[in-house]
Structure formats: structure tokens, C-alpha cells
Amino acid sequence: MFLKPLHHSLYSDPGSTLTPGAPVLCTEFGGISVVPAENTVKGEKDWGYTTASDPDDLLKRIEALVMGIVDGGLCCGFVYTQL
Question: Residue 82 contacts by C-beta under 8 Å, 6 or more apart in sequence?
């Protein structure tokens, strides 16, 4: 997301606009949980924006997220933060 420069009497943020040739990074995405194994107790700290049913489903979901970022060809790097 690119915004017009922000100007205030105390600060200015010219970096909020796209600078041609500058790298575009996705610095945070992820949030896929996996259904716990049958012999484990689901804990209070388990979370996720979406839940994979098994390891194969997890890989498909991660691939869909990554391709959603890189398919457009604008992003030159990303950080998966919520594994």
C-alpha cells in the first residue's frame, strides 16, 4: 500500500510513496495452523487465521499465500512470520 507523503508540523514522512526502482517487500504474512494430532491436547495458545487438515494441506495453503504475493511481479522479497 502506497500513500501520499504525510506532512505535519512536527514530522514529515516522504517515504510513504513509491520510489521508482526501490524494492517492494511483504514483511509479514502467514498464520496457518495445523489440526493437532489425535493424541495431543489442543492448547490455549493454538491459533491461526486458517487451519490446515494435514501436512499436505499446509503446504498447499502456504503455496497459495506465497503465490499471491509473488505472482504480480512487484514484490522482490517476503517474510513468512507466523509458522
Answer: 28, 29, 30, 31, 32, 48
Distances (CA, A) of 46 to 8, 9, 33: 42, 44, 8
| Every domain of the chain and the residues it spans | 26-38+48-83
Residue 1's Cα: distance from chain center in Å?
A: 13
pTM: 0.68
Cβ within 8 Å of residue 74, ≥6 positions away = 24
- pLDDT at res. 1: 60
For residue 40, give Cα distances in angstroms to 9, 44, 81.
56, 13, 24
| Phi-psi label, residue 5: left if phi above 0, alpha if psi -120 to 50, beta otherwise | beta
